[in-house]
Amino acid sequence: MELNNEEIRRYSRHLILPEVGLAGQKKIKATSVLSIGAGGLSSPIAMYLAAAGIGKIGVLDFDTVDYSNLQRQILHTDADVGRSKAESAKETIHGINPNVEVVIHNTRITSENALEIIAPYDIVVDGTDNFPTRYLTNDACVILKKPNVYGSIFRFEGQASVFAPHLGGPCYRCLYPEPPPPGMVPSCAEGGVLGVLPGIIGCIQTTEILKLALGKGTSLIGRLLLFNSLEMKFRELKLRRDPQCPVCGENPTIKELIDYETFCGIVPEPENVGHPDEVSVQEMKKALDNPNLGIKVIDVREPDEYEIAHIGGVPQIPLSQLNERFTELDPNSQYYIHCKSGVRSLKALGFLREQGFKYLKSVKGGILAWSEEIDTNVPRY
What we know:
By secondary structure, this protein is of the alpha/beta class. The protein is built from 16 helices and 12 strands. The strands form 2 sheets. The protein has an 8-stranded mixed β-sheet with strand order 3-2-1-4-5-6-7-8, with helices on both faces. The chain has a 4-stranded parallel β-sheet with strand order 9-12-11-10. It is elongated.
């Protein structure tokens, strides 16, 4: 794969590196990479891969750009809010380097389409934020013998590795054989993330991709790199392939893709059937407007969130303090519990029910639904 004169000028700082040179840049151009996601991690990955001259970048994402993405997802701008993330990513990538072929997969990756989507690419990079997709991506890459360049972030910490059993290393399941119970690990939407953190972890992932393309250096295969941005410290853990791993072990039991939602313990709600423990924000408003109903409302979000946005007259007991403060509540009273979106309020409901509380409901959609359906003056975050 030859370079034209414009590409030689563009990549000149690569070409004068002895470890890259003309031959190495041709390898980079001949490499294709699929990014699972077009969000926080995928933003620096896609942009630096484009700048480096990767020949083909696949972008898989079914979501649209939201204002809350802009604090870290630098592929997108204010003008892209509401647009397809995949389309926005393609435009940004071509703005950086029009020589790169960009293939959009504006869809959700599933057990039915994963092998077909991944098969044409040389390297897969995991920029996802949920466990079913991580296990799905891992298993598909093991089956297809594709390197899986992994990264994850949360609050102020991140981690990165390269999973490639066909190159002698472990896979994601060797590190995490079982997913955590549903809801145990908060998402970035619930726990927050420092905006620059995906830039750091994403750049590490990109470095690993370029090294794989060049066949140079010591990769993160067999190593997990941990980063704490508050401490500004890196740590490294050695990873070993698990001979009992059900996917990449000596006697694999998983030889085709499975139902990853079920594997991760996620049970879909039946369509058009409401959760028996949930009420709407309209019902919550009725309780607040009519104290005679005897229904009390509590907010289980954290203090920092309460400061951003709260509903007048609703007291706060953070979920993180509930096990110490539940005695402040009357087990014989009826409570509507709300959080940001309805996830933590269901957790709080479950905990209080274990303590003997009987009259509990979780507010579906939380304060976000309140802002959208009841009072638009309440900020969304």
